[in-house]
Amino acid sequence: MWGGSNDSKPKSPAFSNIPYLLGDTEGDLEISTFYNKDMLMVFENNESIKNIIAWYLKLAKYADKCPDASPYLSVYEPLIQLLECDGEFFMNNTGLEIKNEGYYPFNNWFDNFVNAKPKR
Question: What percent of the chain has pLDDT over 70?
Answer without folding.
Answer: 78
